[in-house]
Each structure stands twice: as structure tokens, then as C-alpha cells.
Amino acid sequence: MSPKSTRIKSLVSGRRDVTVYYSRKTGLPIDPLKNVKKEQAAKKKAAERKAKRAERRKQSVGGSKKSFLKSLFHMQNVRPRLTEADLINAESSLGAMLFGPIPKGHRREFFRFKHNVWIFHESWFENGEKRETTITYEVRENGVYKIPLGGEYVKIRGAELENFCRATAEYLKLIKTRLY
User: Fold this and answer.
1) Angstrom distance (rounded) from CA 174 to CA 177
2) Cα–chain center distance at 73
3) I need a labelling partner for 67 at 20 to 30 A (CA). Which of 48, 114, 144, 162 fits?
4) Domain extents in the chain
5) Confidence (pTM)
6) pLDDT tens per residue, range 88-133
């Protein structure tokens, strides 16, 4: 019931259980409907406040051009907070477009995972079996290393290195223009 009340005893009268609450301060029984009435009154006040706020919003939007522009500006600047996973998913879907059209039934991702780590992932179904390939690229001071899933570090060179550099540069340009 209330924080200052304690359940001391439960009485059984007929078929119904009746619980009696006593005040810690006075020792007198507490009316259980008193708290219910307080809660109902609080809900009613909250609903009234909400209705007043909605009315004020209607008046401000319909009122002057200046207040309308303020509300419009406020709505445009409100953005939902995105998690790191949301951003990685958005970036990977943009990065997937760098390697040409994605065939039906294929899923492709390319994104920057950490400052020096890039991930390329592609999955598809072939003869009813799911196939996938994941390649991690790690950029170091002495070169770029390719790590296939479950494989060894291999330093990339030549055309593969040029393609990787071109893809990462295009990726950064793409996410800066379309996402950020």
C-alpha cells in the first residue's frame, strides 16, 4: 500500500481473505481505498497535463509562421540514437554496392570494423547448401594482410592491393556522402 504501512496480520472471514494494513506511526488500520483514490487522481492530473500540452502544440503550429518554423526546425534536428551495430549494418549495405550488382539469393557485406580492420563477407545458396566466405583485411604499417576465415595471414600485393585500396577509398567516400 504505502511505504509507511506494514502488513501485520491477515484475517479470514467466511470465504474471503481480508488483509488489514496498519500504519507504522499511529498503529491504526489504513483505508486501502485511500491509496487507490490517490492513484486515480494522479492519473487524471497527468491526462489533463498531456491534453494541455497537445493543445499548446496545436496552437503553436497553427499560430504564427515563426512558431511553425521553430517546430519544423526542431523536428528536423531530432534524430534517433543509433547503436554501433546499426551504423555497421548501414555501412555494410552501402559497402556491398561497391562490387557490382548482388545476385539474387546472395548476401554481401563490406565494412570497416575497426581503425585498421576491414571485413568482406558474402553468403549464398548453391545446390541447396549455404555457402559463405568471410575475409578479414588487416592494415598494418608494413602492408595489408588478408585473413580468410580459418586461414593464415597473407600479405596482398599487386592488383589485389590496388583493388583493395580503391574499394576502401570508394567506401569512405560513399558513406561520407550517403550516411554521414
Assistant:
1) 5
2) 24
3) 48
4) 1-30, 43-78, 84-178
5) 0.53
6) 888 888 888 888 888 888 899 998 888 899 999 999 998 889 999 9
